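Task: sequence design from structure.
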């Protein structure tokens, strides 16, 4: 199937068509020249002289390529045009010189053909790579390569006709005409735009010398290794084939044979390029597709080594020619795209000269040595077999490095700061101790908080309880109670009698509770002048009573009600001292009637000594940010009963949303295997969108803990497809409402903004599901790159995804994120999720004569559909917008 250019915009399509035509002319000219070269050379010269010619081609290609790079014209439009113009003139010169047909002229023609092809083709692909990111390149490069094969077939067919009616020398002037036409077309290629400066560009680091830096790049070295192995193998196969043909055919039949052979081979390559290569690239990717070439040649070379003969040699060369100019060419060009431009130009030059021609030179030297040793066709076939095996082995690990280059590109756009509490050293400790003596309350409280953060509460002196600030004393008492400081007891007993602040004395009752007997508490309860202190003593009496002899509870609520917030805080911090039948009622009253600091202290206490009886209250505490973490800690400590209770609450539609939306994260705190199964089952539930989102976040956290654990992919992929379809649906609604309304009302504007947010949320959920499936991939980085306005960054993200997700999921992600605006995305969406209404929308968008009345009807239909949307917020806002539209 020919790759569709429909995904490109108008300018990109025009450029792609010019590139296809340009390469078709270049390859047509090269095919004509190659046919003339092979026929004329082998008629007058022996095949054994070919290796020396290969050496000369390699040397001159390297020399001229280095010269062009030094002059800065290798990847420029002027360089390509100049090379083609020189090629046309030089080819005409050889047509004139071939009247003599001396050995030196024939060698010169062979060298000229090889050098010209190397330089021009390299320049063409470098120019084309400047205009397209890797995602578009997979379409354009394959189409351009197909255009080149069309030129090859046309050139072969024309050569077949020419040699039938004229001499092979006529092919040379036809090739010159093709090069001249290509030079004219090359002048019409636009200049590449300068790439946008990346945001948050990091400070440049000192670079190693260019050559050392590039040779230290494992991916680049692998590419160059493959670029050298391929021509070595191709050269040995080419020589073996031509040697067999020269021995089998008389000289006068060689031109006809080569013309017909190249027609067949190029036609086969064109069929592969149109029907097979696009499918392989989409399903396997560039690396795996490219590895097919050496593996297929390995099998054919094995057959040649076993069977031998002319037919086997022709079959091996036919497979070589078919794959080299279709699959191998397109895939190799794509593999250069992850490299920065400077490295790409340098690598392409090295691959074309040192790699391709250097490999050809090495093969030539090897052939010369083999011929000197008396090697024949059978020995050369064995050499081809070995080379194909070595070439195949070079692909191990290449896919990992290829994907890694795209990760590096995206990672350079991100900056992550890891914020940690620094280690506590002597000077800092001295400063904190000094701050405890400060007359400023906020400075002392900050120092106390730091001691707690560093888990150094034992270093706070007990005399801090004599600080004039009530807040400082109460905060210190809270820490001392939790730390069980025995040295504090004498100070607390003295302060209980002497301190002037009733709030502090009330808190002290709870601080010294383990050291007071019931008589002391009764004396305080009956004789203290402060109602607050008496209430604390009453609660302390209840907490000290055995479970079987709990005293009268009727004053309990009254005691709590008359107590001050400071007493509530003290009771909450020590609530575990109450007998269990009293603990839960007291805790429930404190949570529902007291302030946030009290609820926070209560949650900490219940989490420190959790019980099954506290389950309902701990679940209720999930609704508040201040108590949520401690509630989860307590639930986790309770274990299996809590996990079952959380799943029941998640599945129960009557569970309040303020609690339900925090259940998935709470479930993710439990055993990974069981919690994962619960959350996977939850994906099938009709959950409110925010709860569904939290389920995915919970699954992501579980996978981060155990990334190697097997997980069922099917429900996640089904849900990913569903979310992508939902995203496309929201995209269509947005495009219709934003394009159809000439006078946007307030409700329509708000609805359009909400649709965009919901669409972005759908995409985020898809990427979270993919992260659950494959936690080794950085989908957060990919998500950021998909939102980039830089097409190259977006293309890198899509290329990474193409190796991680199925094709239908990738198509949906492209539809929601492709650069070029929402209308262009909607056109892509039609390829992913086509519907009659979507086609109608595209017709209205493309129709120049679409009437406002048609848009109004279409908009009204979409508003009515949104009014019935399962998302309550969307439906409510759609109803409001619909009423506004009807009123207007």
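Answer:
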């Amino acid at each position: 199937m020919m790759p569709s250019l429909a995904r490109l915009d108008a300018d990109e399509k025009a450029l792609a068509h010019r590139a296809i035509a340009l390469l078709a002319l270049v390859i047509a000219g090269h095919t004509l020249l190659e046919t003339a070269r092979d026929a004329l050379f082998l008629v007058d010269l022996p095949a054994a002289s070919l290796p020396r010619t290969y050496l000369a081609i390699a040397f001159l290609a390297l020399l001229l390529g280095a010269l062009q790079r030094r002059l800065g014209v290798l990847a420029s439009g002027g360089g390509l045009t100049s090379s083609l113009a020189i090629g046309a003139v030089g080819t005409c010169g050889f047509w004139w010189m071939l009247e003599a047909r001396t050995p030196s002229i024939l060698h010169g023609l062979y060298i000229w053909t090889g050098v010209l092809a190397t330089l021009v083709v390299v320049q063409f692909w470098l120019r084309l790579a400047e205009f397209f990111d890797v995602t578009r390149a997979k379409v354009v490069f394959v189409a351009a390569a197909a255009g080149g094969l069309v030129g090859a077939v046309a050139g072969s067919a024309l050569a077949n006709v020419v040699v039938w009616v004229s001499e092979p020398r006529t092919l040379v002037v036809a090739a010159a005409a093709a090069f001249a036409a290509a030079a004219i077309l090359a002048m019409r290629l636009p200049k590449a735009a300068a790439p946008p400066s990346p945001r948050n560009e990091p400070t440049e680091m000192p670079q190693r010398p260019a050559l050392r830096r590039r040779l230290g790049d494992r991916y680049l070295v692998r590419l160059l290794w493959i670029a050298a192995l391929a021509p070595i193998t191709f050269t040995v196969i080419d020589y073996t084939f031509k040697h067999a043909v020269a021995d089998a055919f008389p000289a006068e039949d060689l031109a006809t044979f080569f013309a017909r052979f190249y027609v067949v081979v190029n036609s086969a390559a064109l069929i592969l390029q149109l029907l097979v290569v696009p499918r392989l690239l989409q399903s396997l990717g560039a690396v795996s597709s490219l590895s097919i070439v050496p593996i297929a040649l390995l099998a054919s070379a094995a057959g040649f080594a076993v069977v031998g003969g002319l037919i086997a040699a022709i079959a091996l060369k036919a497979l070589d020619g078919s794959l080299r100019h279709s699959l191998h060419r397109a895939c190799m060009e794509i593999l250069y795209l992850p490299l920065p431009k400077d490295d790409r130009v340098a690598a392409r030059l090295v691959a074309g000269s040192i790699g391709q021609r250097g490999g050809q030179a090495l093969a030539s030297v090897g052939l010369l040595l083999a011929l000197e040793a008396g090697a024949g066709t059978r020995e050369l076939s064995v050499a081809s077999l070995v080379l194909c095996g070595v070439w195949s082995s070079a692909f191990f690990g290449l896919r990992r490095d290829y994907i890694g280059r795209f990760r590096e590109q995206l990672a350079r756009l991100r900056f992550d700061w890891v914020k940690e509490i620094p280690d506590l050293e002597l000077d800092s400790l001295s400063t904190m101790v000094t701050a405890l003596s400060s007359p400023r309350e906020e400075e002392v409280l900050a120092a106390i908080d730091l001691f707690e953060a560093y888990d150094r509460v034992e270093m706070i002196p007990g005399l801090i309880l004599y600080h004039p600030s009530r807040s400082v004393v109460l905060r210190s008492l809270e820490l001392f109670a939790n730390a069980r400081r025995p040295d504090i007891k004498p100070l607390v007993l003295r302060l209980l009698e002497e301190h002037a602040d009733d709030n502090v004395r009330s808190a002290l009752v709870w601080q010294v509770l383990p050291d007071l007997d019931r008589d002391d508490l009764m004396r305080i309860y009956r004789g203290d002048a402060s109602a607050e202190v008496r209430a604390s003593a009453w609660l302390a009496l209840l907490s000290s009573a055995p479970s079987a002899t709990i005293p009268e509870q009727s004053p309990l609520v009254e005691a709590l009600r008359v107590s001050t917030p400071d007493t509530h805080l003290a009771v909450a911090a020590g609530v575990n001292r109450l007998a269990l039948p009293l603990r839960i009622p007291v805790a429930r009253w404190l949570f529902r009637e007291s302030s946030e600091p009290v609820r926070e202290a209560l949650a900490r206490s219940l989490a420190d000594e959790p019980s099954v009886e506290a389950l309902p209250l701990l679940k209720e505490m999930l609704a508040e940010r201040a108590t949520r973490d401690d509630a989860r800690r307590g639930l986790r400590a309770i274990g299996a009963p809590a996990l079952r209770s959380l799943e029941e609450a998640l599945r129960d539609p009557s569970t309040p949303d303020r609690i339900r939306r925090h259940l998935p994260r709470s479930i993710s705190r439990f055993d990974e295997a069981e919690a994962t199964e619960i959350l996977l089952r939850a994906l099938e539930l009709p959950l409110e969108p925010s709860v569904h989102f939290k389920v995915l976040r919970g699954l992501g956290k579980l996978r981060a803990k155990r990334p190697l654990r097997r997980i069922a992919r099917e429900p996640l992929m089904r849900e990913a497809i569903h979310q992508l379809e939902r995203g496309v649906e929201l995209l269509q609604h947005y495009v219709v409402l934003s394009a159809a309304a000439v006078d946007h009302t307030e409700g329509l504007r708000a609805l359009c903004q909400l649709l965009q947010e919901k669409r972005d949320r759908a995409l985020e959920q898809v990427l979270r599901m993919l992260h659950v499936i494959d936690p080794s991939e950085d989908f957060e980085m990919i998500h950021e790159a998909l939102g980039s306005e830089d097409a190259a960054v977006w293309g890198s993200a899509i290329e990474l995804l193409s190796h991680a997700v199925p094709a239908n999921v990738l198509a949906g992600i492209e539809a929601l994120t492709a650069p070029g605006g929402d209308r262009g995305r909607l056109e892509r969406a039609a390829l992913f999720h086509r519907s009659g209404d979507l086609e109608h929308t595209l017709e209205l968008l493309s129709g120049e004569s679409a009437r406002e009345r048609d848009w109004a009807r279409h908009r009204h239909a979409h508003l009515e559909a949104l009014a019935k949307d399962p998302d309550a917020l969307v439906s409510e806002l759609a109803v409001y917008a619909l009423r506004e539209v009807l009123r207007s």
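Residues 254-307 form the longest helix (54 residues).
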